[in-house]
Amino acid sequence: MILVLFLFGLIILIGITAILIIASTLHIQIKNLSISNMQTKNNNKYAIIFSIYFANKIKYIWFNLNSKRAKKIYSKVQLEKIDLKKFKKVFKLSDLKELTKLHLKILDLNLDMNIGTKSPLVTSFLVVTISNAISLLLPHLVNNLKDNRYFYNIKPLYYNKELYKINLDCIIEIKMVHIINVIYYIFLKKGRRKNERSTTSNRKSYAYSHE
Length: 211
Fold this sequence. Notes:
It is a single chain. The protein has helices at 2-23, 67-80, 84-90, 120-141, 176-209, and strands at residues 24-36, 47-54, 58-66, 105-116, 150-156, 163-175. The chain is of the alpha+beta class and 211 residues long. The chain has one domain (22-196). A hairpin with a 3-residue loop joins strand 2 and strand 3. The longest helix has 34 residues, at 176-209.
């Protein structure tokens, strides 16, 4: 009887978890983010808020990554000296293709970008290229482009210097199901690569032993 109740409770728990995952979405809100090489000190107080919503209405998990917390994380990473070579071995460039399966949506966008190079011709080319890229990609990343929630302004800086200043406010939405699928595929590929390497090395050692 106890075993039956345990199994029944486990099934209910798995069912509730599955419903939560299927019906949940992750919202990433970027507020007051400013990146620039035109100022000696950047005292910008930005925030990146991660929130998980059930049925896109009820927020039940959230985390606020403000500028102070980001600086602490950055200093911790610098102290621990994370080996980027190991990271590159685990994640390949081909894994980036899987990120397109996230099917992210932009709910709000306010982008102001100023960019300049040593060449006025290159500066003009970059401004046109970035503007065209955004105008082509944005319709695929929003539900309704006619909403007055999407603004972007790319401006050139003609000072014969490599300058940039980016101000960004936006909200990105990703379904939790898509996040889990992408993570699963990336680690599944990682496991396959390990198996392929071990199989190849075993074949080589077997061949050498029979020479």
